[in-house]
Amino acid sequence: MANAGRIHWLNEKPIGRETYVLYWMQSSQRVEYNHALEFAIQRANERDLPLLVLFCLTEYPEANLRHYTFMFEGLVQTKKSLEKLGIQFAILKGNPVDVVHEFARDARLLITDQDYQKLQRSWRGNLAASVSCPFAQVESNVIVPVENVSGKEEWSAATLRKKIHKHLDEFMHPFELSTLANSSLAIDLDSLDPNDFERILKNMDIDRNVKPSPTYKGGIHQTRKKLSDFIADKLEDYAEKRNDPNLDFLSGMSPYLHFGQISPLEIALKVQDAKKGGSTAYMEELVVRRELAMNFVYYDQYYDSLHCIPDWAKKTLAEHRDDFRQYIYTLEEFEQARTHDPYWNAAQKEMVLTGKMHGYMRMYWGKKILEWTDSPEQAYKIALYLNNKYELDGRDPNGYAGIAWCFGKHDRAWKERDIFGKVRYMNANGLKRKFDADGYVEKVASLEEKFN
Fold it and tell me: What is the pTM of this model?
């Protein structure tokens, strides 16, 4: 049953034509633990109507061949799962506002899933005003809906934690999809076939220079296998070993969460049920830290620029703007991993090659970009550009929050230093104290040799 707290009506239009219920799937690209899909099935059954699921393929800003390939690998499996439920899955290329508007003409009700960034929210706003049927948005990409937790941007994890934990009992419970009464498979539609995604992508104006990841493959089957292995082999020692990139005790769930191929609720329930030593630490990352990022992007319109950092960070960085920098690199030098620092270069190479940089190294990576550029503004742009281009989980709230953190967001003032001012500082000696940093360089070199 779709929790009422997850449902938000975007308009007050009268009921539309009794042809079908339309679910515009965009950010929750899955069947399992999809509250928007469950709500759509419920409403279709109430009116004895079929349910049509629509996905809009658009040339999304900064998305490239790596991102689209991973996404399509997941959509292939999603299509099969929907068809087993008697639900037709239509994939059409075009501006989502135009495509969805056309299909909504015959819909009794339009339903979509929730996301947080400016572009997607503008799509929904335009559709809410233009469609002639009711339009509902259902939250399925966080444990607790953003607006239920807080009505404002939160200062840090400390201010969000109590608020979010207060709602966990209400929203953190398992559910199974209802059975759809009326199949929509007989509806005649000219849909793209996700199995033919290579041909589809050839006809799109996207960057093909960033190749698909050789280590991450999309889809619910791959996701669940990776999650199962993590819980069985790594969760117990997650808290102690997560910051060592040589051991790789992270779950690797962020690319799959980014594309909505798995629900954070499913992950949370399985981690909680495992009752292992690292469960508490992992839940802090999955629930509090991840949903702090959603809160940030939802409430701060400047989430993609340096304007988003707190006033104390702006002030201290401005005061140290003209400090001497021993090293200054261009975007090209950063992108090609041509700095003096072998640890930074290894992190950049790992990201470029695999589509995923170890989380601890990403913090160091971002801090050093700030240190080795002419200005904080330039550093912020470079970090975002590289993160969004190469990371499978870039271009989303966690990516924006992670970059902003390197510049003082969701953090406090520290000891004052050159260039950084009071923004938290990291250096290579700190890496060496935590793990075998030279071993990490060798590990990445082995990946290069294997995949290049």
Answer: 0.97
